[in-house]
Amino acid sequence: MDLGRTWAIARKEFIHIRRDPHSLIMIMLLPVIQLLIYGYALTFNIKDVPVAVYNRDRGHLADKFLNEFRGSPYFKLTRAADSSEAIDRLVTARQVRLGLVFPHDFTRLLHLGRTAPIQALVDGAEPNAANVILGYVQSLTADFNQQVLRDRLNRDGRPRLELRLKPEWRFWFNEELESINFVVPGLIVVIMTMVGTILSSLSVVREVERGAMESLFATSLEKSELLLGKLLPYFCVSMLVLSLAMLMGHFLFEVPLRGSLGLLIALSAIYLLVMLAQGLLVSVTSANQLQAFQTAMLITFLPAVLMSGFVFSIQLMPWPLQILSYLVPAKYLVTISKGIYLKGIGLDILWPDALILVAFAATFLLATLRHPVKKIR
Predict the structure, then answer these.
(1) What is the tens place of the pLDDT at every residue in 149-171?
(2) CB burial string 162-190: b at 16+ within 10 A, e below
């Protein structure tokens, strides 16, 4: 392979990029728009959940239990209903997400040391949010039960074993449970997947459609020189997009980077080689640009969103999809990105994922170089 001819192809691609500023602007705007939309819209934090209450008891313990909700940042008491049917209507109309119904003898039963039932109606149209809301309700209920037991201990003076244990929760790596810290590292991977694959998947087939490939038939250009020459400019553009996405994540969303920035960039560069090589393979096997674009989106972007662990936990998927996820390169960079961003871990832990990315890059590059590109040798 002649490096001079390879650089000539790369220089030609750089000139094409420079002479097409509209496409370059779109490529740079794409990650900005995606980060803004997903960064602000894709959130798993649930706060100020509207709550309606039908309180038939009016005793002091019922009011004390409701004070637990008033003092919580996760709930907001917005409606006082006068019947159970009114609670049903409010939940059905999505005016509230949670309805609480107190029995008329709530306080009396607790004074007698018996179990006092309380009905909690949760809007289950969104199962994930409903489970989170239910978890918050159960947590507040457990705290209230401890308070009732403690008050009873103060009255009769008899020690109770259950009061000696008080769990204290601590979350590691994302202490405030801010979903933006979870979303942005994975979103950067999705952006690199889309940008890298789209850029390279159109590169060779575009030359064929425009007839420019014919001028290369009479030259001594090798297939490896053509493909690697086309890969270099798009690698540089993709690294620029990566830098922009990281800067936005740091300064706009204030996502902490607890690990090595150099390691993250190096492993991201390997992943970009995977995506660019996969895009080139799509380009040399496609008949036109539309087919190349659709194929690239189908085999790279959708798996990166759905099967990489970016949004949905892979461990909760059916086992066939869990096995299939091992063939998705984005899965490994999502693990790397979240590990470096949130946990600050290094190559001593991440080396298996890094090694798999290297294997993916080598496999796609070799497959692309072995596949015939029209009449180029």
Answers:
(1) 777 666 555 555 444 445 566 66
(2) eeeeeeeeeeeebeeebebbbbbbbbbbb
